[in-house]
Every structure is written in structure tokens, then in C-alpha cells.
Design goal:
With 149 residues, the protein is α+β, with helices and mostly antiparallel strands. The protein is 34% helix and 23% strand. Strands 3-4-5-6-7 form a 5-stranded antiparallel beta sheet. A two-stranded antiparallel sheet has the order 1-2. Strand 4 and strand 5 form a beta hairpin.
Length: 149
């Protein structure tokens, strides 16, 4: 059944096997819930808003949705990045961040796959290094999708 197949895609299962990709069949070019997320009166959401625009500009294959309450960027239907705002900082996270080159040493985290960059008011960020991370995350996920991972 098609609905069962879509449920399996959301869990990362592809054609009876396990995929390491986090897939969302509901990802679209511009998602109304992502736009609504930014309409909230939260200064830390403003801090990540330009970075969401950078994620969107990564390629014509970028789609998005609101997942677990935060904007998530996908290559086609495969998640590659997300943003979130917390009480003291905002984050840009990368689903396959552990495998990304990070010469600017921006990435934090110790998990098997995911890494994030924290943004704080008044603390400068190496914008060029973050732009490179976003480009690398997009290219990495494009490669993974194209290889059938």
C-alpha cells in the first residue's frame, strides 16, 4: 500500500532495507508552517532566518517542512539541515554533520551522525565557514540521494 510505503520512508526504511537518510515525503519548496515559525515574536528566530534563506538557496532541489517544531531543509525529500531557537542560543544542525569537513571548527556534538552550530547574540560567527558547511551539507546529501542511499 502507498500509505505504508510513505510511513516507511518517514522512518528511513527504503525498499525493505534501512536507509541512513531521514526522509520526508511531505517536504515542499516553501512550507507555510516554516513561514509561520518565523512570524513568532522571538529574536533568536530572527538570528537564524538569514541562514534558512541560505539553506533554501543551496539548490533548486531544496525542499522544506516543519519537523518536530523546527524548520528542516531537505534535498528532495532527504533532510540535510534544520534550525531551531532555544532560550539562550539558536542552532543550525546538520543531519549528516559528523561526516562533513569542518576546517572552521564550528560544529558541536558527539552523536553518531548529527552536528550543530550554535549562534548567540553578540558573539560573532565565522560566516564564510558556515556558508561552506551549508554548501558541503547540501552537496553531501545530494550525493547520498543520487547514490540511492
Amino acid at each position: 500500500m502507498e500509505s505504508d510505503r510513505l510511513d516507511n520512508l518517514d522512518r528511513g526504511e527504503l525498499d525493505g532495507g534501512m536507509s541512513t537518510l531521514f526522509r520526508f515525503a511531505s517536504a515542499v519548496r516553501r512550507h507555510a508552517e516554516v513561514e509561520a515559525w518565523f512570524s513568532a515574536d522571538d529574536p533568536l528566530r530572527r538570528l537564524v532566518e538569514p541562514w534558512v534563506e541560505r539553506l533554501r538557496a543551496s539548490g533548486g532541489d531544496v525542499r522544506e517542512l516543519l519537523h518536530d517544531g523546527h524548520p528542516t531543509a531537505c534535498v528532495d525529500d532527504a533532510a540535510f539541515a534544520y534550525v531551531d531557537a532555544f532560550a539562550a542560543h539558536a542552532s543550525i544542525g546538520f543531519y549528516a554533520g559528523a561526516s562533513l569537513p569542518d576546517p572552521g571548527r564550528l560544529l558541536e556534538g558527539t552523536g553518531k551522525r548529527m552536528r550543530h552550530v550554535k549562534l548567540r547574540w553578540g558573539q560573532p560567527i565565522d560566516e564564510a565557514a558556515l556558508v561552506e558547511l551549508i554548501a558541503a551539507a547540501h552537496a553531501d546529501m545530494r550525493r547520498r540521494v543520487d547514490s540511492g542511499e
